[in-house]
């Protein structure tokens, strides 16, 4: 016999759960029950589904796997087995078959028991390659530590150049956006001739192409990434050109130093008014002043960002994996190695040579020392004499040109499996292995920080206490913060939203500028929770405050009004077309429930003109609760509201998903999605639709067969804050994102253990990241890596 033809990952309509979910399922004699179920299954089901539920070609080819609870599975069998004769397996027989299937092959625990996952050998992902090259560069200059200070340092002089005696003002400016006109920029500074030197660093929060925009009516030059690395040269003002644009590819979690020299000179002709602004267009956003939160008021060490574009990595398991090795990957890594070779020869080698003049130049000893340090850092280990001979001495011997020798060494080093496959470190010391894995887990990179390499040299990363101390030092790093932001975006699935658009007739004012404010608001909220002292996961759903702007308050109403700006600060808030400065919301946010009801999330999970309980329900079941759903039976077009003008969105969705074949999954989906119906297509709170009160009742069946009902979004938010299913899903998502391996590969009980530690820590997100890193750093020594 066979299950319902559409049934792959087995779930159950809530209406059929009375027996199973009124109390947790209890089995008197599990072994006897399973044995009975096995006999029934083999006699009635195996012909179509296989002895172990693996599927049968020509019959039912899909494997019988899923995450339905035992009660859900029992009732699905009761209603669908055998196909065409559902009454043949009901009551105790259905219970026994469900018990056998659930234990033998259907459940996640069964699959792990039958085929334990292994740590998979993998190359660097594109992002790991990009981060590793950035740290390989920074190794020779120093890696900047984290700071909370924000803004850009400005030094103002009277006269057209730097002279200490002419320095009049030294301060931290929140942004660079000034219109001095024909007036002096400050007290004691002449209006006809002055010079301003701004220096600082820009924090990139997302990897991608950034368009840097400087608008200036007088001469200026801008260095970026490294002092002396000119990005824009307008030292001699040319004609009427006042706008200058350059595109650079930046890497998330990195800070890039810059300086701007801004000069007003005396002229015999009419003097132009002086103004300047520093803006950018971040990935997936709109032009905006580079905000204070992305600026550091000093020039950090030089930074490198790979400009070569890399192909996307496999995401079929829900996280990036470096498993594809094809022509596209090979070509891109070669291009990256050639690009980095030029930078190493032109920037790193001169810097190293200046700082190591004590090393003699005879027999090119200084060059050999530089290249040895380079290869050892890239390979994450000390070099044997044989390796030195192959990778360094032979290459130097091939050419008398130092730059050519450097490019040769860089090319063969960065194309080597020893660099591209970080797990090929079996011969390394225990401390070196731990450092390798800590850097890969937190930074997606190689160990390049001096303090970390010193611990390796002293063999001080052997026991758990030493590893944990290092992990806590690394968790607050800029690079970890960037990776954490990426993880949260993946968890919320916002990285796949793309351009959110709405019906302009129904929602006037919903434009790219508002959308940019909303995304910045969500990101600032996430950062505040994660990097607060408590770092409490539950506040992601229970916080009654948010970040907002004047533009958001105008569109969303009183619930999103910002606090009053401090005295004297109101005039400094940026205005105009770009995103506005964010401030915390005022008190009284009854319907603001952390990220759950944030308008950016609600807008992304909706159609252009109506809300979408289906999108929201799928998001909740898959991402917030970590449950599985089979793909839809077929692509379908949502019922148009115009066809049923009297139906509410809930009624229309219920009508469209009413067939039994749809209800297999939509009982789960709709039961969660309906709870957010009080938020429309743009995320505005409402209580009435089609002149009817909104019905936001919903429900959910947990993994342990408990039925939970919700009156509205407030009940749902409280549930997500306290639910074991939600905690487990978050922990699993974090582990996969940071380690790039399934958590079960580190032990069948590891996810449960991690979730329990997460709970005991007070749901501290940073403590969770440390725990994940300690596991990734220490446990692979005893784990088998699948080739």
UniProtKB/TrEMBL annotation:
Q: Which InterPro entries match?
A: Cyt_c-like_dom, Cyt_c-like_dom_sf, DUF1585, DUF1588, DUF1592, PA14/GLEYA, PA14_dom
Q: Which Pfam families match?
A: Cytochrome_CBB3, PA14, PSCyt3, PSD2, PSD4
| Cited SUPFAM superfamilies | Anthrax protective antigen (SSF56988), Cytochrome c (SSF46626)
Gene3D superfamilies linked = Cytochrome c-like domain, Toxin - Anthrax Protective Antigen,domain 1
What segments bear the compositional bias annotation Basic and acidic residues?
560-574
Source species, domain of life:
Bacteria
Give yes or no: UniProt keyword Heme: yes
Q: Which residues form the PA14 domain?
A: 147-294
**Signal peptide from the UniProt entry:** 1-28
Keywords, comma-separated and alphabetical: Heme, Iron, Metal-binding, Signal
Keyword Heme, does the record have it?
Answer: yes
Please give the residue ranges the record annotates as the region Disordered. 559-589
Q: Which residues form the Cytochrome c domain?
A: 32-144
Q: Name one GO molecular function term.
A: metal ion binding
Put simply, this protein is called PA14 domain protein
Organism for this UniProt entry: Bremerella alba
Organism lineage: Bacteria, Pseudomonadati, Planctomycetota, Planctomycetia, Pirellulales
